[in-house]
From TrEMBL:
Coiled coil: none annotated. InterPro entries: Munc13_1 (IPR014770), PATROL1_C (IPR057984), unc-13_homologue (IPR008528). It comes from the Eukaryota. This is MHD1 domain-containing protein. Residues 1-63 form the MHD1 domain. Pfam families: TPR_PATROL1.
Length: 63
């Protein structure tokens, strides 16, 4: 679950946790009751990429 205080803590979740959250997000996306998954996939991928880049940036800087 998302923790709004995570940005202020001195540690980040492990990469394994981040990948697990991404996997859950993709699975939930494809279970949405919408007819146009294909049109929204680029937005999903972009959001996941931005989140992963942010995590990597924070991890490299020591949070």
């Amino acid at each position: 679950a998302w923790n709004p205080r995570a940005e202020t803590e001195q540690f980040a979740p492990s990469l394994v946790e981040v990948i697990h959250m991404m996997d859950e997000t993709v699975e939930a996306f494809f279970h949405l009751p919408i007819p146009m998954h294909q049109d929204l996939i680029p937005h999903l991928v972009s959001g996941l990429d931005q989140g992963l880049q942010h995590y990597i940036s924070k991890a490299k800087s020591g949070c």
